[in-house]
Amino acid sequence: MRSDLRRLSGLTLSLILAGGLALAQGSAPTPQDLEALNYYVSNGDSRAADAELRRLRAQFPDWDVPSDLTTLGQQRSPAAEIDRIYRQIAAGDLTEARQAMDETSRNFPGWTPPPEMERLLATAEAQAAFDAAASAGNAGAAIEIARRTPAILRCDRVNNAWRLAELQAAAGQKAAALQSYRGVIASCSGLSEVTATLEKAEAVASDAELVELFRLANAQLPGSGPALKALETRLRAGRGDTAPEASAPAAAATGGAKRTPGRTAVAEADLPAAGRPRTAGVARSGGGAGLSAVRAAAQRGDWRSCTGLTSGATSADMLYERAWCVYNLDRPLEALAAFEPAASGRLGAQVARDARFGKTLALLALKMTEEAARLAAATDLTIQQRREVEAIILDQRGVRAYQLKEYRRAIAFLTAYEDLTGGLRRDLAIMRGYAYLNLGKRTEAKRIFTELNNQLATPETRAGLNASR
Known about the structure:
Shape: elongated
Number of strands: 0
Strand content: under 5%
Order of helices and strands: HHHHHHHHHHHHHHHHHHHHHHHH
Distance between the termini: 45 Å
Structural class: mainly alpha
Largest sheet: none
């Protein structure tokens, strides 16, 4: 599967247990209980609204149903506000996103921004500040921003290291620039990242320093010796040296442990923020060697090389390949934008369908569940694509219902997930057990925890058994 699906949702056992036992539902629905009904009413889905209304009446027999269901919108959870904040972050409307986050916290006293939302916004704000500092040529400010927000120093934002090194070199700080380049080579594991960095570093490195950088690169990428040797020969020939020193791969191999993706690109003292890596000599239009190289990288799962090769791409076919690669690097915001040209039909109906499937997965990765559900409903997905999407949607809805203490809805979603996939992950099964327990259904909860404990006894299953006795 092109998407190389990762587990996109699910509640950890510690989070489930930390929630403790909540009181049973009262005799009147809360705003959270009315969320689904309000959604159906506001979207004019009368059949779904009637079914939800029947369920609520059965669950809350003492509830006085309002004559005008449109007034339910006044009693709601901040789902719409949360989706809007994520959209604003994705669009780069950071001031508006921060204001919306603060307003939502004030208007919904029980709500606090989730850590992922805070992280996304803080990183985007730091990136914007770094870009402004870099555009102004202020290397000192750029370094300080990077120190405050290390997330913008990761290898998937290697462009920041390059921009900072260029600022340092322009300010006459060649040693600092060289150290920035050295940090990238020592920390990043993508061949395209490392080779592009070596090409840039050549402008500020002496002959001896260049040899040392290639030794470092060979240690970092022990399987890329021929490519690095060819690059070193070319760079040294450009200096008029026709007999370049060997970079001694054997000697360099002493310290050649690969870094995992996401490592900081350079030393903390050196870098910052987001832009796109530029790889020299890559075709940017459809077809040809450029697209073939991109597809080859994607085929072997080399997402970083694929991303580097498509940096700055403008054609729909290159952007489509890039979208899957950045998605698999856990960069769903970028994936959403890159999928758009293909999703609009510029590459034909089948690719448009697959691109809309990719957009749906990216929305789910951002926990924008209802947005994803609407897009999936409007797309003629394949049977397999629809099963994958629906499973993630049911997973996320079940987890969210549990977090909102909507235990009956959580059980319904998780049961539907089990029916669709033929099984239930262990963390979700434990969550369903606690949902029954919170509804006072100890017999059912005990049955679930007993079954899980018989399969594999853990502190979590024993705690569930003790709580259900």
